[in-house]
C-alpha cells in the first residue's frame, strides 16, 4: 500500500498538472530570479575587474551561471504567458533553448570544477556545498522543463553556437569564471573540459527534445 501511494505521489510530482501549475511556476520563477541576482552579485568583483582591464563588450561573457539562470527565469514567462505573436514566440523559443543548453552546461561545469579543485588539494568551504546544490538544481530543472518548452532544432542550433562563442571568448581573453586556486595550473584541461561539456549539453538538450516530442 505504501509503495503504491509513493508511486502515485511520484507520478503526480512528475505530471504536467503539477509542473505547470501556475503557483508552482511562479515559485520556481522567483527562486530562479533571486538566484540570478545573487549570481550576478557573486560575479561582481570579476565584472568590475573586467571593465577595468578588458574592452567593455567582453563583460557580456563574464557572468556565465547567472546568465544561464536568467535565461531559465525568462523561459518560464513563456510558459506562464504563451504569446500569440509569432515573433515573440520565436524569441521565446531561442531563450528556452539557451536556458536548457546553458543551465545543463554551467550546472554540471560548476559542480565538476568544485570537485576537481578538492581533488587537487583545494580547501573546502561551506559555500561550495551551496553552489553544488544550486547548480545541480539548474541542470535538473532544465531537463525536466524542456518538454514544456516550444523550441525546435533551429533555436537549439542558435543556443549551441552562442554557448560555444561564450567558451571561445572566455578562454581567448581569459575571462573564464575564476577557478579554485588549485586548478590554475590546469587551465588548458579546464578549457578542453568546458568545450567538451558544451557539446555534451547540446546533445542532452537534443535528446531531451526528441523524447519530449514523443510524449
Automatic annotation (TrEMBL):
InterPro entries documented for this protein: DUF1405
Transmembrane region(s): 23-43, 55-81, 153-173, 193-209
Keywords, sorted A to Z: Membrane, Transmembrane, Transmembrane helix
Keyword Transmembrane helix: yes
Family annotation (PANTHER family): DUF1405 DOMAIN-CONTAINING PROTEIN, HYPOTHETICAL MEMBRANE SPANNING PROTEIN
Protein name: Membrane protein YpjA
Amino acid at each position: 500500500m505504501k509503495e503504491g501511494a509513493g508511486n502515485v505521489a511520484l507520478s503526480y510530482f512528475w505530471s504536467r498538472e503539477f509542473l505547470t501549475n501556475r503557483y508552482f511556476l511562479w515559485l520556481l520563477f522567483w527562486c530562479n530570479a533571486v538566484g540570478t541576482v545573487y549570481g550576478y552579485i557573486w560575479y561582481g568583483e570579476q565584472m568590475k575587474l573586467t571593465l577595468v582591464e578588458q574592452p567593455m563588450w567582453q563583460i557580456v561573457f563574464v557572468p556565465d551561471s547567472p546568465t544561464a539562470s536568467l535565461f531559465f527565469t525568462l523561459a518560464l514567462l513563456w510558459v506562464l504567458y504563451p504569446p500569440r505573436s509569432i515573433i515573440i514566440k520565436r524569441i521565446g523559443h531561442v531563450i528556452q533553448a539557451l536556458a536548457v543548453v546553458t543551465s545543463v552546461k554551467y550546472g554540471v561545469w560548476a559542480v565538476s570544477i568544485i570537485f576537481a579543485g578538492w581533488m587537487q588539494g583545494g580547501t573546502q568551504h561551506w559555500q561550495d556545498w551551496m553552489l553544488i546544490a544550486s547548480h545541480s538544481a539548474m541542470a535538473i530543472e532544465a531537463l525536466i522543463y524542456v518538454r514544456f518548452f516550444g523550441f525546435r532544432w533551429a533555436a537549439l542550433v542558435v543556443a549551441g553556437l552562442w554557448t560555444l562563442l561564450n567558451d571561445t571568448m572566455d578562454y581567448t581573453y581569459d575571462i573564464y569564471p575564476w577557478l579554485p586556486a588549485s586548478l590554475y595550473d590546469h587551465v588548458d584541461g579546464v578549457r578542453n573540459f568546458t568545450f567538451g561539456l558544451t557539446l555534451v549539453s547540446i546533445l542532452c538538450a537534443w535528446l531531451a527534445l526528441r523524447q519530449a516530442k514523443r510524449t
